[in-house]
Design the sequence.
């Protein structure tokens, strides 16, 4: 029996309120995976933007902005 078959059997026996909870959890899993993919994508984009010869900045390089 595959995981999908086992899950289908369990789903068929669940009451509606439990199905709602299961749906919420499935949506959470989907959201979490998508969020993780976007985080990986962002890290890759930053890695592409900054190369090995990027200068090291210190606090002295930061200028205080008093115009706010």
Sequence:
């Amino acid at each position: 029996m595959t995981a999908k078959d086992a899950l289908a059997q369990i789903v068929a026996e669940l009451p509606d309120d439990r199905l709602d909870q299961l749906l919420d959890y499935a949506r959470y899993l989907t959201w979490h995976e998508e969020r993780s993919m976007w985080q990986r994508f962002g890290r890759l984009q930053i890695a592409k933007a900054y190369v090995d010869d990027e200068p090291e900045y210190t606090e002295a390089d930061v200028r205080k902005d008093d115009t706010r």
DSSP finds two helices and no strands in the chain.
